[in-house]
From TrEMBL:
This is Alpha/beta hydrolase. InterPro entries: Acyl_Trfase/lysoPLipase, NTE, PNPLA_dom. Keywords: Hydrolase, Lipid degradation, Lipid metabolism. Gene3D superfamilies: Cytosolic phospholipase A2 catalytic domain. It comes from Acinetobacter populi.
Amino acid sequence: MASLSIFAVASVQAASHRVNDSLVLNQTQNIHISTTISEVAPAENHRPKIALVLGSGGARGYAHIGVIKVLEENGITPDFIVGTSAGSIVGALYASGKTSKQLEDIALALKVSDVRDFTLSKQGFFDGQKIEDYINKQVNVQSLENLKIPLYVVATELKTGKEIVFHEGNTGKAVRASTSIPSMFVPTKIGNEEYVDGGLVSPVPVDVAKRLGADIIIAVNILAKPEYTETSNMWGLFNQNINVMQNRLAYYEAEQADILIQPDVREKQHVFSTKSRKETIEAGEKSTLDHIDRIKNLIEYRKFHIADENVEQFTGKQQQQFQYISSN
């Protein structure tokens, strides 16, 4: 069985130390606890930990490539990536070590047949196995924990509706779970549980990055505004229902980000046309260019203030940490 890690939130009391607790669950359901304590060392010039949060949004996910391109051109590399739904796809490929140019080439070459596999299941029209295989091929079958940039993939546990975060194991399967849109895709089964699209509970998972200890959070919201969604047909109405709910969730999530990038992307009639893909990538570039000076200034500012803030943060304050569960 593929090994995947699931994170749950725990609140721990922190004094002058940073504490990381991990719970590992094996096939026999035995729980092993390991704790690592490291000192918070002050530094005059401490590089801030940067998180790149890539949100959900279907084919509008091409905009994430444009965002990465501008960050790359300005020498900004995230310390870790949090991706949900479409953001998990781009996040996985980027985390594997691909450049923005390679990401763009892959995006423009993608065929419908590469990722869609029809099924007669009562749970959905598409099985999702092709997405899993496609991602694993693109990342050279690297597991999540072995990617060059740490990646956290958000999905929704179908039975409970809980937010689940994968960080170890089969990269393709984690992305498959995160992109399994209910009623369209068959839920992804991992162990005894079924998982569906992460965008249902966390369309712009800023809170995950925050709980992982990011000093600077750059979030990308690619959701279509409800007023731009076509509602004259059944598919449009389905999209609108999802858009309304996700936009409301995203509003509260995104306000926690230090930098919020919102490319001007709308629903495209021909999402698999080369023209639409290029336009969406360019929209991501344009929006990021509008924020790049602020991003650079924030990084420089935090370099010289992060040590003082860390001392304050770990003096008697409640600090939320992840406890992760690994199923093999």
